[in-house]
Amino acid sequence: MARMLTFEVFRFNPDVDERPYYDTYQVQESETMNVLEALLEIQHEQDGSLAFRYSCRGAVCGSCAMSINGMIGLADKMLTRNFKAKILVEPLPYLPVFKDLVADMKMFWQNIRKIKPWLAPLEPVPESEWRMSVEEMRRIEIFGSCILCGCCYASCPVTKRDRDFLGPALLSKAYRYLYDPRHTRAVELLDVLNNQEGAWGCDYIYNCVEVCPKHIRPTDAFVAVRKKLVSKFFRSLGF
Q1: Residue 96 CB neighbour total at 10 angstroms
Q2: Residue 27: phi, psi to the nearest 5?
């Protein structure tokens, strides 16, 4: 028998409300319902003012990242059958709120621009393609899978205390370019990361590993980048 689900949803419009509050909605559960589908039903049939982000509905774009019963993840990936009948839905923590479940990702995007996450290729440009070995490709492939959903950023305790911290997703992106043999800005990128806001800021709590919807291990990127920085330092001393 299908359950009747109770959703407690975070509400806040900073242009109107003095403080956040919660609204309660009832939704009839279907067999394969995910949290995003439930929110869409609430928006379409009960409360058109409810605001949240979504796009692909297939755990690809990452725009529907939010907190669900205290667990950070993608609403289109979290099935309601894995929760009790009462579900608490809130925006990503540690971030300002535009409205309701829509977190302000401005700082996240400002930080990612600092690492210039695009390929600066070798010259001259080949007529057909740059060739990479299978080993080289495998080394960076998983870190290229990051969809920039912000789940790791919003779950990181360092982000909470230091708004200038670049965050796990950005170090994962940085790793992808540092170890790409076609990239020409590795030295410049290392200089950007060589500070407490970059490679040296991680406390190794591993929240980022737990919440990543693409099963990336950002802490491995922190370790690898730190090793590169240490090697660069000793080379500069002539070792």
Answers
A1: 11
A2: -135, 130
> Residues 29-67: pLDDT tens digits?
998 999 999 999 999 999 999 999 999 988 899 999 999
Q: Per residue in 80-136, pLDDT tens? A: 999 999 999 999 999 999 999 999 999 899 988 998 988 888 888 888 888 889 999
Class of domain 106-236: mainly alpha
Helical segments of the chain, H only: 35-45, 106-114, 134-141, 151-155, 157-161, 168-178, 186-193, 207-211, 218-236
Q: How far is it, in rounded angstroms, from Cα 134 to Cα 218? A: 22
In whole angstroms, give the CA distance from residue 211 to residue 150. 10
Q: How many helices (H) and strands (E) does the chain have?
A: 9, 7
The pLDDT-based confidence of 238 (bands split at 50, 70, 90) is: confident
Residue 93, sorted as left (phi over 0), alpha (psi -120 to 50) or beta, turns out to be beta
Q: For the chain, which residues make up each domain, given as ranges? A: 4-103, 106-236
Is residue 148 within 8 Å of 62, Cβ to Cβ?
yes
CATH number of 4-103: 3.10.20.30
